[in-house]
């Protein structure tokens, strides 16, 4: 936990196995002498075809994928003493079933299904994976590992209990780090063609859960950082909860966020965003 009233964070995701590009971006853009307080990664390190019913992901692919993820987060660790991530729908099932399956240094944590205090009165809670995505023509992308939203609902309810158990009281705030975002907001919508309308890549259950926890007396959601829908890069306001989609790192996109405690309310706020396709140009 950091003992400061402000911090800077880099949010990124959807690397999709572009390890060399990830390394090049960090070397050219960032300094090891000016690290981020936190790096938050929204998942999809890999390209495993978990969501294809006619494909079988082998044990060999899973093991290789775990090694690739370890390599990628080790790159991130050089630029922050605290790296939190959740798995995406193209990442191995093994790191959903056991969040400690990949042995990381203490600076790195798979936060799927977990809660951790990161600053005074501020926690991070993680939920990885995706759900089915649709447009007017029907199903476009199968969810993984959530074949339906009921299991996600159960996992979110368990996450809520964990947040409550760890809460510091009524003024506790939480950052939700997820792979997919809530249904129906700008950061979870994509387009393929005008005829079939928007692709809804977000989760209705997550949408409903974020609505419901507004009435929770033990914590307040500060923001939802997510990825998954590459074209949804940007930010939306959803029931006074800020959603942030940094875009895809393989497109040289990410987001810089600065957080601070507001002088009057004494609550954490996001006081600046910088969305970076542009800042990664070199």
Jot down its keywords.
globular; about 280 residues; six-stranded mixed β-sheet; Purple Acid Phosphatase, chain A, domain 2; Metallophosphoesterase; 5 helices; Metallo-depent_PP-like; Calcineurin-like_PHP; single chain; alpha/beta; 16 strands; hydrolase activity
Strand content: 25-35%
What topology, given as strand order, has the largest sheet? 4-3-2-1-15-16
Reading off the top of the CATH hierarchy, the class is best stated as Alpha Beta
In CATH terms, what is the fold-level topology? Purple Acid Phosphatase, chain A, domain 2
What is the name of the CATH architecture? 4-Layer Sandwich
Q: H/E element string? A: EHEHEHEEEEEHEEEHEEEEE
Low-confidence stretches: none
- Biggest pleated sheet: 6 strands, mixed
Report the CATH superfamily: Metallo-dependent phosphatases
Helix content: 10-25%
Question: How many domains comprise the coordinates?
Answer: 1
The first-to-last residue Cα distance is 34 Å
Taking all Cα atoms into account, the compactness measure Rg is: 18 Å
Q: What is the 3D form?
A: globular
With helices defined by DSSP (H or I, 4 residues minimum), what is the helix count? 5
**Care to count the β-strands?**
16
Decide which structural class fits the backbone: alpha/beta
């Amino acid at each position: 936990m950091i003992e400061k009233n402000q911090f800077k964070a880099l949010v990124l995701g959807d690397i999709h196995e572009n390890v060399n590009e990830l390394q090049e971006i960090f070397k050219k853009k960032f300094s090891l002498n000016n690290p981020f307080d936190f790096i938050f990664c929204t998942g999809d390190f890999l390209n495993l075809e978990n969501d294809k019913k006619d494909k079988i992901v082998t044990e060999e692919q899973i093991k290789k994928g775990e090694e690739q993820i370890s390599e990628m987060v080790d790159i991130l660790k050089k630029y922050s003493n605290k790296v939190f991530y959740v798995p995406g729908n193209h990442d191995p099932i093994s790191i959903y079933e056991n969040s400690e399956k990949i042995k990381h240094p203490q600076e790195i944590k798979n936060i799927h299904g977990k809660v951790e205090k990161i600053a005074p009165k501020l926690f991070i809670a993680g939920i990885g994976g995706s759900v089915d995505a649709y447009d007017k023509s029907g199903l476009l992308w199968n969810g993984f590992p959530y074949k339906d939203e009921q299991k996600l609902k159960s996992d979110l309810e368990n996450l809520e209990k964990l947040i409550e158990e760890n809460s510091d009281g009524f003024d506790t705030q939480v950052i939700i780090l997820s792979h997919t975002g809530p249904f129906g907001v700008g950061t979870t919508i994509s387009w393929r063609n005008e005829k079939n309308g928007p692709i809804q890549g977000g989760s209705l259950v997550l949408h409903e859960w974020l609505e419901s926890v507004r009435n929770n007396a033990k914590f307040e959601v500060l923001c939802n950082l997510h990825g998954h829908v590459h074209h949804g890069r940007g930010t939306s306001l959803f029931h006074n909860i800020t959603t942030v989609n940094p875009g895809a790192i393989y497109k040289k996109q990410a987001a810089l966020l600065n957080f601070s405690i507001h002088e009057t309310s004494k609550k954490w706020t996001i006081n600046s965003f910088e969305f970076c396709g542009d800042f990664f140009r070199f």
